[in-house]
């Protein structure tokens, strides 16, 4: 098809030709004919040399799975396998919009001789987790004077999986090793007295105690029957239920409720697995779901990483159907950490919570509180602030009502913001460990 | 090397521009500039302003006369004499208004339509100056910026001068008018024929300008990209070495607060404020520095592991061969010229081809009876349409041959 320049030259040619006729000027007539013929004459040759089938494109990505904020080197190789040269070709490699171009460029204007190839590359940074598709590579082929151009598109697509950012997990691990996290991140054991092999102390005999644990020396010394007391560490079975409904996408893309929830879930799972607790995962919405039965170990952690990386928000969260789905799959008593913004159907939430208790599970609801994510670092006018405060007030009121309803069945709601999400989730997990909830 | 060739090409385009401009300007009657030298533009401007004023005045008076007549007719209160009196009153008032500013109305006695003619003439002469200025500015800018669009604008302006000149019969290119009476059977155009030369120079100018743009669009971005990337990498390495200093900047705290609090309490307060205010900025800087170091590590590892990474990042690997490009472009241009000349000749002088081909006498006779416009259009339109038609047929056949490939979306397997 004609490019803008080709159309311009053709129109100028027609205008000059008509002027030449009108004003009886032979120069204008000849020049008009030159321009008209010059703008159309190369059309057949251009189409004849168009590399419809002879353009081979290969995209080389150095890794198919990377972590959020990692860098990625993408190399593009375009080969002209035909026998005609391509005078001018604009190659544009499409990458997901959310990626940041750090070095190099994803487009180039060049020319390719027969059986020659061009190579260029660029470096991207992946700012968000998720599954992304690279491609296609688009070509705009021009003739030498840019009178005509054609657009072609390669069918080369590549998928890339970006894992959630584990920077926080790494930081936490290194800090925990240095014992610098105080009461919150220290190692806490789930103690079950009188079992295990770790000696903890001596106490008085109570009816029903095993005779073999009587400490005879202490009994002789005190003239009373004294028992040796041991403790053991018991592991718990935890299940993370993640709301992946559309409302969880609110907030800045890199720090939405869902992203924060995923990071929290990942850190929670890592921490629990290190303590030999079994962790399962269910991400749920009416549109999609993924399930990972409780387990531990590096392979399990990586499976969880895969699942969390592929999550995309959509649909609506329905706790009742989620629990109904889980019921046959998780038959043993478990500790459910439900991460939801509670912005779905209230009745279904209440019914879901009752079901959880009905199946003898324990649960806690961690609520990423919408307004704290959505208005973070955003300047608000006084009117907007007033509206925001009204919304916050209403949401808090609803939460208070829900809390009362849930507390009757022993489930608490913990509202969290972007700043205290991780510490709160970990703190609740450690409390559950202390209370020996859902021990294996 | 690349830059030198680009400058040589620019030189050729400049030479073509100067030649084309010189031919057009020299062919124009000097009268069109209204005066010799640069003062001509002021003369043209003044003439235009006076003409505009006269026409506007005429329009205002005509409007008042019309309004007075219409109102007299509608209301019936005014007689024809009253209406004439009203018109005279307004005309006097407007005259007095202009005279107050040192202007006088156009000399009386001229028929109203002459004012318009004089105005249009002044506009006509002013247009030469405007087009010349646009052509010079667009021409110079197109060479500096290497822009095809500006080159087109320059060409249009130059052609505009020629068309204006031809319209006013002030363009004098030998043979440009009697070309209509070129003998049909004359097979060879003399290359020295001024008409052909002027048209060729114009066409060469446009071709050369677009050729420069073509070379520039392929070669310059690669050079710029390479320089830019090397600069970025150097900067990256320098930044990666930089240490973010621990924040020690002091935040000013009022003296009154110091007096009110004790020294220990004041120190504590200062620390709290400093931490609150400065920590965020410091953390951002720390994070940036961390990112830069990570990127530097990534690039260093990439260059170590992939020997051609630097060449692909700078796109040095994609630079076309300048020698090959030059040779092929000159060859293509030459073939293009010959082809265009040939087609143009067929359009203008079809008998030169039809007679040697032994075309039927009835066709030859009917063509002999035609004047240039009909004859040219009769051959030009089908020939000009033939190329896009052929292109469409070729494109259609090639599209049909190409198998619709299923898009392959490889999934992640490991």
Throw out a few tags for this protein.
heterodimer; A: about 450 residues; alpha/beta; six-stranded mixed sheet; four-stranded antiparallel sheet; 13 helices; 19 strands; about 35% helix; elongated; B: about 425 residues; flat
Describe the structure.
- The complex is a heterodimer of chains A (440) and B (414).
- Chain A has 440 residues and is an alpha/beta fold.
- Chain A is built from 13 helices and 19 strands.
- In chain A, 36% of the residues lie in helices and 28% in strands.
- In chain A, the strands form five sheets. In chain A, strands 16-15-14-17-18-19 form a six-stranded mixed beta sheet, sandwiched between helices. A four-stranded antiparallel beta sheet of chain A has the order 1-3-7-5, with no helix packed on it.
- Chain A is elongated and about 135 Å long.
- Chain B is mainly alpha-helical.
- Helices cover 74% and strands 0% of the residues of chain B.
- The mean pLDDT of chain B is 77.
- At the A-B interface, helix 1, helix 2, helix 3, strand 3 and strand 5 of A face helix 5, helix 6, helix 8, helix 9 and helix 10 of B.
Write the layout of secondary structure elements.
The complex is a heterodimer of chains A (440) and B (414).
Chain A: H1 4-22, H2 26-40, H3 43-48, E1 55-61, E2 65-67, E3 71-80, E4 86-93, E5 100-104, E6 107-112, E7 117-125, E8 130-134, E9 137-142, E10 149-153, E11 158-163, H4 167-177, H5 182-185, E12 198-204, H6 216-222, E13 226-231, E14 237-243, H7 257-274, E15 278-284, E16 289-295, H8 298-310, H9 319-326, E17 335-339, H10 346-358, E18 362-368, H11 370-374, H12 382-407, E19 412-416, H13 421-434
Parallel strand pairs in A: 2-11, 14-15, 14-17, 17-18, 18-19
Antiparallel strand pairs in A: 1-3, 3-7, 4-6, 4-9, 5-7, 8-11, 9-10, 12-13, 15-16
Chain B: H1 2-27, H2 40-75, H3 80-100, H4 112-145, H5 148-167, H6 194-241, H7 255-260, H8 263-305, H9 309-313, H10 322-348, H11 351-354, H12 361-368, H13 372-401
Helix pairs in contact in B: 1-5, 1-6, 2-3, 2-4, 4-5, 5-6, 6-8, 6-10, 10-13
């Amino acid at each position: 098809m004609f490019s803008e320049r080709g159309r311009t030259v053709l129109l100028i040619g027609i205008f000059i030709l008509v002027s030449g006729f009108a004003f009886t000027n032979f120069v204008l007539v000849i020049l008009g004919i030159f321009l008209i013929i010059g703008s159309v004459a190369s059309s057949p040759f251009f189409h004849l040399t168009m590399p419809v089938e002879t353009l081979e494109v290969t995209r080389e990505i150095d890794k198919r799975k990377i972590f959020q904020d990692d860098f990625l080197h993408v190399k593009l190789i375009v080969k002209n396998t035909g026998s005609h040269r391509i005078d001018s070709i604009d190659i544009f490699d499409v990458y997901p919009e959310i990626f940041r171009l750090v070095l190099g460029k994803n487009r180039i204007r060049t020319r390719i001789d027969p059986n020659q190839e061009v190579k260029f590359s660029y470096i991207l940074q992946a700012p968000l987790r998720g599954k992304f598709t690279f491609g296609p590579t688009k070509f705009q082929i021009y003739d030498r004077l840019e009178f005509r151009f054609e657009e072609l598109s390669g069918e080369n697509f590549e998928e890339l999986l970006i894992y959630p950012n584990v920077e926080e997990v790494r930081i936490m691990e290194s800090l925990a090793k240095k014992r610098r996290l105080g009461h919150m991140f220290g190692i806490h054991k789930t103690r079950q007295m009188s079992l295990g092999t770790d000696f903890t102390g001596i106490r008085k005999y109570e009816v029903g105690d095993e005779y073999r644990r009587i400490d005879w020396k202490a009994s002789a010394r005190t003239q009373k029957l004294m028992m040796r007391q041991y403790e053991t560490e018991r592991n718990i079975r935890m299940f993370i239920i993640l709301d992946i409904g559309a409302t969880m996408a609110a907030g800045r893309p890199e720090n939405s409720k869902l992203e924060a929830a995923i990071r929290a879930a990942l850190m929670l799972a890592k921490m629990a697995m290190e303590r030999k607790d079994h962790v399962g995962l269910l991400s749920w919405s009416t549109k999609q779901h993924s399930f990972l039965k409780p387990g531990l170990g590096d392979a399990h952690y990586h499976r969880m990483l895969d699942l969390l990386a592929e999550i995309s928000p959509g649909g609506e969260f329905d706790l009742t159907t989620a629990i109904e789905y889980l019921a046959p799959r998780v038959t043993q008593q478990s500790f459910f950490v439900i991460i939801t913004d509670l912005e779905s159907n209230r009745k279904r939430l209440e019914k879901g919570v009752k079901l959880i208790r009905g199946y003898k599970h324990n649960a806690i609801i961690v609520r990423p509180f919408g307004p704290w994510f959505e208005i973070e670092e955003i300047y608000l006018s006084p009117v907007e602030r007033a509206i925001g405060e009204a919304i916050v007030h209403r949401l808090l009121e609803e939460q208070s009502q829900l809390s009362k309803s849930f507390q009757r069945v022993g489930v608490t709601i913990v509202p969290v913001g972007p700043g205290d999400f991780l510490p709160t989730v970990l703190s609740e997990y450690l409390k559950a460990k202390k209370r020996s909830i859902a021990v294996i | 090397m690349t830059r030198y060739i680009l400058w040589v090409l620019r030189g050729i385009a400049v030479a073509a521009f100067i030649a084309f401009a010189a031919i057009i300007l020299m062919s124009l009657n000097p009268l069109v500039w209204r005066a010799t030298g640069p003062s001509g533009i002021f003369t043209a401007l003044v003439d235009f302003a006076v003409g505009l004023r006269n026409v506007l005045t005429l329009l205002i008076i005509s409007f008042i006369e019309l309004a007075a007549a219409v109102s007299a007719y509608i209301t019936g209160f005014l007689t024809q004499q009253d209406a004439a009196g009203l018109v005279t009153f307004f005309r006097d008032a407007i005259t007095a208004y202009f005279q107050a500013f040192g202007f006088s109305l156009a000399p009386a006695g001229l028929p109203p339509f002459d004012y318009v003619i004089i105005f249009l003439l002044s506009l006509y002469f002013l247009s030469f100056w405007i087009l010349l200025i646009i052509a010079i500015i667009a021409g110079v800018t197109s060479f500096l910026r290497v822009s095809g669009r500006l080159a087109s604008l320059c060409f249009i302006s130059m052609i505009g001068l020629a068309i204006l000149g031809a319209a006013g019969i002030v363009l004098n290119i030998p043979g440009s008018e009697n070309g209509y009476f070129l003998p049909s059977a004359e097979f060879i155009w003399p290359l020295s024929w001024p008409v052909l030369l002027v048209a060729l120079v114009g066409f060469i100018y446009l071709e050369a300008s677009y050729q420069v743009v073509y070379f520039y669009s392929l070669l310059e971005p690669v050079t710029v990209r390479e320089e830019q990337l090397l600069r970025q990498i150097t900067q990256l390495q320098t930044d990666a070495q930089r240490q973010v200093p621990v924040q020690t900047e002091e935040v000013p705290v009022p003296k009154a607060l110091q007096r009110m609090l004790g020294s220990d309490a004041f120190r504590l307060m200062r620390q709290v404020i400093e931490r609150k205010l400065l920590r965020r900025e410091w953390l951002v800087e720390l994070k940036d520095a961390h990112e830069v170091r990570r990127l530097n590590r990534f690039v260093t590892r990439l260059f170590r592991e992939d020997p051609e990474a630097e060449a692909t990042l700078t796109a040095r690997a994609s630079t076309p061969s300048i020698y090959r490009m030059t040779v092929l472009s000159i060859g293509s241009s030459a073939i293009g010229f010959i082809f265009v000349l040939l087609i143009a000749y067929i359009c203008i002088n079809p008998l030169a081809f039809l007679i040697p081909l032994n075309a039927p006498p009835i066709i030859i006779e009917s063509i002999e009876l035609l004047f240039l416009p009909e004859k040219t259009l009769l051959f030009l339109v089908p020939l000009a349409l033939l190329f896009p038609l052929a292109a469409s047929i070729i494109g259609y056949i090639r599209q049909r041959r190409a198998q619709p490939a299923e898009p392959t979306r490889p999934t992640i397997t490991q």
